[in-house]
Design a protein that fits this description.
The protein has 65 residues and is mainly α. The protein has a domain of 36 residues. The chain contains three helices and no strands. The protein is flat and about 45 Å long. The chain starts with a helix and ends in a 7-residue tail after the last helix.
Length: 65
């Protein structure tokens, strides 16, 4: 039982870290896109990350590097 609780806690920490780092940004985009624009196909993942990086370069926000 303790092993299951530990596994769930570690999974929860992992999800949190991915969310903070932005690793789940494409999944968040897909969920929003399905809800807001169901009749339009979503951007492919590669194009999404390219656009996201381009926006960060054009409009830099507080970041470490």
């Amino acid at each position: 039982m303790a092993t299951i609780a530990l596994r769930e806690a570690l999974a929860s920490v992992g999800r949190y870290v991915h969310a903070v780092m932005g690793d789940n940004a494409y999944e968040v985009y897909l969920a929003h896109h399905r809800a807001a624009h169901p009749d339009v196909p979503p951007m492919p993942e590669r194009a999404f990350w390219r656009e996201r990086d381009d926006v960060q370069d054009r409009e830099p926000q507080g970041r470490c590097c």
